[in-house]
Design a protein that fits this description.
The complex is a heterodimer of chains A (787) and B (217). Chain A is an alpha/beta fold and 787 residues long. Helices cover 48% and strands 14% of the residues of chain A. The longest helix of chain B has 31 residues. The chains are: A alpha/beta (787), B alpha+beta (217).
Chain lengths: 787, 217
């Protein structure tokens, strides 16, 4: 019988530890356990056999760390021998046994937090899957602490085998993964990936795991598995020991096995065949229960969950270039910082999900969307709504998304459903479904409801449950039809309260063509929430909308103790947002006051052209601060606060330039980068802001940048100056390699360097043209060079 | 957890005789509030074996580390702990969030406060260990990290083999042996029957031109 067929028929018992068993048999510190598949196969086989005799049903292969990063080479050989050793023991057992191809973490942190590319992680797991799939009955992805790495492993398993997939994670005593996800987020995300079992292993003993298993069971519609350690590791005479006895372990594991939804248990570090033999006695006879599907609708980021259907959810609509000149320009220039600041501001204003749309005819949407989604994940912990009409862009963005996103959108057209539903099924996600089809948008509520029903049915045929569909009843401009709002609200009410699905609405459409649109939008938003709106796609930076939201929640008992309402009201009272007092731009920049600088620039724009404001106000102010810094009377934080204020003022002025022409002359370009191998970029970022304020165009290549890439961009962009940063002694060597390459291949280009460990002497030795001892130094050098 | 403001100011270029202005203090205060909400401190340590093989070779946990300075640092120790700690990836995320959304000053402040936070956290954990060890008459040597003195940064790879750092506290190594999350520390801690009397901290370091060097120079 195959593993999937056996699942749910009886309690299954995983085996116990391999690593600690091997240590007891002489595995040296730092030695890789997988090498024993070749060096001491009989020892490995004997451990498997002991677990088989103890009554286990599933053997984990000795391949936990068998990836190319840890082993160097020999992955295929060590994985194959690992699988065949377990297979032999399983086949010789006197009862039916399964072999789990065991894959652990890569040991690296994935980008954007770490230095491992998602697709590289995928390739590492793919190599393991291809080597081990023959002879295995299932794939066990275990001891995982990062949902993103789990996604790479699960995709590798799904795309390269048909084996069932079990994922177990390591939580700390606070119930968090190492990368910050809580239990609910982990469950929702993994169910999105479509795995066959979800669970916990390692980290804690059975007592510590019990509450976490119970919590998992609350959220999970997927069977659970739990493989605890034999207690917490303790250090005894320099050796890591686990002190829970086989009897105590088995007794505690029994409580876990009794939790509804748990279909398999076993052991991890410190457990022995004796532990599992005892556990077989206490656990194997426990009946397994069928699992009640949990009907809640939720989306996740790498760290948190947003549930739809409780309190209305705010989806921030600002990252969408339609009708937004500034964002359009930012996208075309590849300027991420504007997009990031939109993300951060919307989050501060109360957005719980961010819509991301980069659809512009001039752009390579698939590349830009996946790139933007990746980058946003590095700075926000809000779930994203991936918004595109291109199937390819959607597929690529869904692949890199870390969590379970909202997918915006599918509709009742056959082609749309055929494109979107398979993607949603494969990568996970809740799909926004527009109630329109080949015949357009029905004028009546009944027509839109019929389409919703059709979509619901079709989605189910793809294996997408009702809870993962969020219906949009479509808001049509009320100025073109007096009944438009009514039809939308009727549809909404029916969808939520009769059909019982979650709903979403782009609210501001309703007011096109009318004056004072915010009034109409806010009133309509309130009406929509009252009629069952689960999530509104709105501008959270609009006070009218957010006031309507907080007031609604307060009135409907959705805001315990009126906390959110009072907080928002207090904020509004405190914020000088309607401050129209005259602001002195020069003084604001010198003092590092951002809001005042923006206001000052705005006021000056009424009478002066932008270029004159820059020359008469901004440059002199920046110079004053720069000189103070150089003289040692001002320090880095002050320099930076001024720089940030000036940058904010420049952003205001940008809107004052007409026709996209930003300045009178061509800007001088400078390429900057943190060298290969170095991940510290704060110094480089500081230099960037200062150079930009002084009117240079900075091409920022980021951190950990290979010499060849710096050369390629410098040559292509014909820059005359490259700035390199390195923080560590060890990466100065990489800086030197970059300098040698640039000087040889592109001698016309000057190189300035900086970083904590550098000195003038050191910079001379590695051949730099200029050593900048601080951030202002680079500005002065650039000024001199381009003078 | 104690985050020493003076330490953060030093990372931001202030020296002992420099008085920070009100605007800078406000910046640090605001940033610290945000930073504290993302701190997730975790630590791990274990005792292992210590053997002197020659004057520049020390066998720790079965792996040989070549360094005169480490040996000298441990000269009075007859026991050794492997120690690792982190304040988590939230700090890196916060710094990136500030830097990428036009808040460079806060990014620099969060960076400096994060560095002060991990030092403060390590001191706290070590003080607890010291208290326990004092009962057996042992003193803790100051932390000595891979990359100090003549111990190459590459020693991190061996250090990571000896202690289950990635699995237990989530700290990983890049190809160039830097730790991620960045606000993390690994260190050897010697245990001896006499209090440590060698030079410590900046005074023990040979890089006299370092921009962050404390004190007399």
């Amino acid at each position: 019988m195959d593993f999937k067929a056996r699942l749910g028929k009886k309690m299954l018992l995983f085996d116990g530890a391999m690593g600690t068993q091997l240590q007891a048999k002489g595995l040296a510190a730092g030695e890789l356990p997988e090498t024993w598949n070749r060096q001491a196969p009989e020892t490995i086989y004997a451990i498997h056999k002991a677990y088989a005799q103890a009554g286990c049903d599933i053997l984990k292969t000795n391949t936990f760390g068998a990836n190319a990063l840890k082993l160097g080479g020999d992955v295929a050989e060590l994985v194959q021998s690992g699988v065949s050793l377990a297979r032999r023991a399983a086949d010789e057992a006197d009862h039916e046994m399964f072999v789990a191809l065991d894959m652990g973490p890569t040991g690296k942190l994935l980008k954007p937090y770490g230095d491992l590319e998602f697709e590289t992680a995928y390739a590492l797991y793919r190599e393991q899957v291809l080597a081990g799939r023959d002879g295995a009955d299932l794939i066990l992805i275990e001891t995982m602490g990062d949902l993103y790495e789990i996604k790479a492993a699960v995709l590798a398993a799904k795309e390269n085998s048909d084996l069932p997939i079990v994922v177990t994670m390591i939580f700390d005593e606070k119930g968090k993964l190492l990368t910050g996800a809580d239990v609910q987020t982990a469950v929702v995300t993994l169910e999105g990936f479509g795995v066959d079992m979800i669970g916990l292993n390692c980290g804690l003993g059975p007592d510590g795991m019990l509450p976490l298993v119970r919590e998992m069971a609350r959220y999970s519609s997927t069977p659970l598995v739990c493989n605890p350690n034999a207690g917490l590791p303790e250090c005894v005479d320099g050796v890591t020991s686990y002190r829970v006895t086989p009897q105590d372990f088995a007794a505690a594991l029994r409580h876990i096995a009794e939790v509804e939804g748990v279909w398999a248990v076993g052991g991890c570090c410190g457990t022995t065949p004796e532990h599992l033999q005892e556990a077989a006695g206490t656990c194997k006879a426990i009946p397994v229960h069928s699992i009640k599907p949990k009907g809640f609708t939720a989306v996740t980021s790498y760290a948190k969950t947003v549930v739809l259907g409780e309190k209305p959810v705010i989806i921030g609509e600002r990252i969408n270039p339609t009708g937004k000149k500034r964002l359009k320009a930012a996208l075309l220039e590849g300027d991420k910082s504007y997009i990031f600041s939109e993300a951060v501001e919307q989050a501060e204003k109360g957005a719980q999900v961010l819509d991301v749309n980069v659809g512009l005819p001039e752009l390579d949407e698939p590349a830009v969307l996946s790139d933007t989604v990746s980058a946003l994940q590095g700075i926000t912990d809000l779930p994203l709504q991936i918004d595109t009409s291109s199937g390819e862009a959607m597929a690529r963005a869904l692949r890199v998304y870390n969590g379970k996103p909202l997918i915006n959108s599918a509709n009742g057209k056959r082609e749309s459903m055929e494109t979107v539903f398979p993607l949603a099924k494969k990568y996970g996600g809740a799909v926004v479904c527009l109630t329109l089809d080949e015949d357009g948008i029905p004028d009546t509520a009944a027509g839109r409801i019929r389409i919703a029903e059709k979509i619901l049915k079709t989605a189910q045929s793809y294996g997408i449950p009702k809870k993962d569909l969020v219906f949009d009843p479509l808001a049509m401009t009320v100025s073109t039809g007096a009944d438009n709002a009514n039809v939308t609200l009727q549809t909404l009410h029916h969808l939520r309260h009769v059909l019982g699905v979650q709903t979403v609405l782009g609210v501001s459409n309703i007011s096109f063509g009318l004056p004072k649109r915010a009034h109409i939008n806010a009133a309509f938003f309130t009406l929509a929430m009252e009629n069952g709106l689960s999530a509104g796609i709105i501008n959270p930076k609009s006070d009218e909308m957010m006031n309507a939201y907080y007031a609604f929640c307060a009135l409907k008992g959705l805001d315990p103790n009126f906390e959110s309402y009072i907080a928002s009201a207090t904020d509004a009272a405190a914020a000088p947002k309607t401050d129209t007092s005259k602001a002195d731009l020069h003084a604001a920049v010198c003092k590092g006051l951002k809001d005042a600088a923006q206001r000052g620039a705005q006021q000056l724009l009424e009478t002066l052209p932008p270029l004159e404001i820059i020359q008469q106000y901004l440059i002199p102010a920046l110079d004053e601060v720069g000189k103070g810094f150089e003289a040692g009377t001002l320090f880095l934080p002050q320099l930076l606060m001024s720089a940030d204020a000036a940058k904010a003022a420049f952003d205001v002025l940008k809107t004052g330039f007409s026709g996209g022409q930003e300045t009178a002359g061509e800007k001088h370009k400078i390429v900057i980068a943190t060298v290969q191998g170095d991940i510290h970029d704060i110094g480089k970022n500081i230099v960037k802001v200062l150079l930009e304020n002084y009117g240079f165009e900075v091409i920022d290549l980021g951190k950990d940048v290979p010499p060849e890439r710096i050369l390629e961009v410098a040559q292509r962009e014909q820059v005359r100056l490259v700035g390199l940063s390195a923080l560590m002694t060890t990466t100065v060597a990489s800086m030197e390699r970059t300098i040698v390459l640039l000087h040889r291949e592109y001698p016309a280009c000057k190189i300035m360097v900086g970083g904590a460990v550098l000195t003038q002497d050191y910079a001379d030795r590695i051949g730099a043209d200029f050593y900048s001892k601080d951030a202002m130094g680079s500005v002065r050098y650039a000024e001199k060079l381009f003078a | 957890m104690k985050i020493r403001k003076a330490e953060a100011l030093r990372y931001l270029g202030f020296r002992a005789n420099h008085q920070p202005d009100a605007q800078t203090l406000k910046l640090l205060e605001e940033t610290e509030t945000q930073l504290r909400s993302v701190l997730a401190p975790k630590s791990i340590y274990k005792e292992t074996t210590l053997r002197r093989l020659s004057e520049d070779e020390t066998e720790i946990g079965g792996i040989v580390f070549r360094s005169c300075k480490l040996q000298r640092h441990l000269r009075d120790s007859d026991r050794i702990l492997l120690f690792a700690a982190t304040v988590g990836g939230g700090v890196d995320r916060l710094v990136r969030q500030f830097a990428s959304s036009g808040d460079t000053a806060k990014a620099a402040a969060a960076q400096a406060l994060g560095a002060a936070a991990i030092e403060g956290y390590c001191d706290e954990v070590c003080a607890q260990i010291a208290e326990r060890e004092a009962k057996d008459g042992y003193y803790l040597c100051p932390r000595f990290s891979p990359g100090y003195g003549d111990v190459p940064l590459e020693a991190q790879r061996d250090f990571f083999k000896l202690l289950d750092i990635t699995k237990r506290i989530g700290v990983t190594l890049t190809d160039t042996c830097m730790m991620l999350p960045t606000k993390s520390v690994t260190a050897f801690i010697g245990l001896s029957h006499t209090p440590f009397c060698g030079k410590t901290g900046c005074k023990a370091c040979s890089n006299t031109e370092c921009a962050y060097r404390k004190g007399e120079t």
